[in-house]
Protein 1
Amino acid sequence: MKAQLVSRECTGRAGLCNPVPGVILDRPKGPAYKDSMRSPAIKSQLKIRRSFRLTIYILCGLAAFHAAAWYILADQLERGIARWADERRADGWMVKHGSVELGGYPLSWRAAIDSPELARQTGDPGFQWSGPAIVLTWEPWRPGDLGFEVTGSHDIALGTHRKLTKTNVTLAKGQGRLQFGPNGALQRLSLLLDGATLGTRPEQALLINRVRAVIDTTPATQSTSPAKPHLIPSVRLNGNIFGLTLPKGTVAPLGRTIGKLVLRGTIMGRIPPGRPADALSVWQKSGGTMEIGHLELGWASLIVQAGGTMALDSSLQPVGALTGKISGYNETADTLVTANLIKPGAAMVAKFALGALSRTPRGGGRPQIEVPLSLQEGWLYVGPVKLLRLPKIRWH
């Protein structure tokens, strides 16, 4: 079949038009055309085009499905927050917050909660908390986990309902993760805080550069007789504090800044709810202890690494027996003498006795000693040497 395109050339005032030869197009037909369409190259190109279009359709469908699923799960997250608040209110808690803004699309679900407030209205210990905002992060592939982020100034009150001790915590940055069990109870708390200031007045504030902590409320238990509940682990702690600066005016002969404090331990026996002094008294009378796997202190030239067992005496003061490695003891003894905390004679005896026990590590470094450490009757003993009086703890 031929198609002839004809154009016309118009001349004169009458607008007479004369036909002008056009272009004749021949459309392919016949067996030759069909054979050409059967060639492998043409077939491959057509197949690629069909596959490309199909891929585009599938991707568009998946994108639409993901968007719909994201909004459905975001709605469930918002409903879950409201349901949790209602359950806490039913348990006697006060829960308030401002607006809830959802975000995180496309790979996570975030809920920014403005002006949250939480307070225990019945029972002890009393607790109150309020902050500027908290951001919760949830991922469907970890349904029992909930991440959180906090910054700014937070008001916290602890104690009893008759007497709450209020303080303020200001954070440059805080983040962590909550892990819940099948019954909704908190099983594990992971926490990382940067630039923390504790205290209501700047001159009495405690400064911390960084805190990293993990609290596990369901540690693995061994087969223990129910008649010996004080041997059942209840809480496992793993904490690191870097750059702890004590408040101004604190008597700190080694300096106000403690470079490093590490604690890994397990609380044996259950500490019941209630006022801190009452709860700890019950725990102490039942034989509760704290097994310390690793305790490390880096304060000025003093470095202590220890492990052992600690508990509370009848006055709720710490007692314990540990085995430790100590370095920097000579410099520390001199500093304590300068601060008039120990007498020169006692320092000389301590330096002589500890020096006789010291060993230089194989890899080099400062000499260190491995000696028993004990806390009893308000004193710290290094071996047989009565070294330092400990401040009394008041459990408000």
Protein 2
Amino acid sequence: MEKELSIMSKSAFIEMVESAYSITPTLQGNKGTIESVINSHFAQMSTKNNVWKRDTFRTLLLHLYTQRHFTILKNPGYIEVLANISAFGNKTVRDI
């Protein structure tokens, strides 16, 4: 039963992120839930210009989820930082 519960919650978060990524950006406001915070950040990112921001934000959210960094994903302030980090998604860093 425990294993089924973790699979259900995993797919629910991934589906929420994919849904927020794929919908047309409309300002919805922050309703105090993690879903509304993620939706509002995706809504601020263009689907036509600088699409890499949306791609990077989605990738960061899913990566942190698969790495089990739930504390970061529960905090709206940290999610805002991830959205700001995604603005640098097209930059590369050279190896030292």
